[in-house]
Design a protein that fits this description.
22% of the residues lie in helices and 23% in strands. By secondary structure, it is of the alpha+beta class.
Length: 166
């Protein structure tokens, strides 16, 4: 990691898309990665996602993905909250994330976003009843602002989901 401060547009708005992304078990060229407008997950925003950072180590020429297992385990829990099942294990999704990073040949920091959504079916996630989710994983170059003197603030909600047993 260098001590150079990244320009805001380098980390906020990447200028070029990646080569491909992973959609429900297949690598898909960026230009061909589409979802029909009638698919339930998009039309009712029944979706969950994780935001994962990858940090390039130029000395080792290696991309280090921050807490990948923790992020993917949380994605699985979020899918469960939505009553969505996953056709893929954490290990399979881990392999997919690594494949995406290697295929897109990132030699710098990146942002990786796996997202899960309901595919075609009856509208309304409550009626989904454990229907399998579709999963897409995309990544983009995104220069880290760590060590650049930038700060962020956040808030943590105290809201808790009602138990499935209520």
């Amino acid at each position: 990691m260098t001590n150079e401060k990244p320009k805001k547009d380098e980390w906020a708005e990447p200028s070029e898309p990646p080569k491909c992304l992973w959609m429900s078990g297949e690598m898909v060229d960026w230009e061909n990665a589409t979802v029909h407008a009638s698919m339930l997950g998009w039309s009712s925003i029944s979706m969950v996602f994780e935001g994962i950072r990858g940090y390039w180590n130029s000395d080792q020429e290696q991309l280090n993905i921050f807490r990948l297992d923790s992020h993917l385990e949380r994605l699985m829990r979020s899918m469960k909250v939505m009553r969505m099942t996953s056709p893929w294990s954490v290990e399979e999704l881990t392999s997919a994330v690594i494949d995406i990073a290697q295929t897109n040949e990132f030699r710098g920091d990146c942002y990786i976003q796996p997202l899960a959504y309901f595919g075609e079916g009856t509208p309304g996630y409550l009626s989904a009843g454990g229907r399998p989710g579709e999963v897409a994983i995309f990544s983009r170059k995104s220069t880290s602002i760590l060590g650049a003197g930038e700060t962020i603030t956040c808030g943590v909600s105290s809201w808790s989901r009602i138990s499935d047993n209520v």
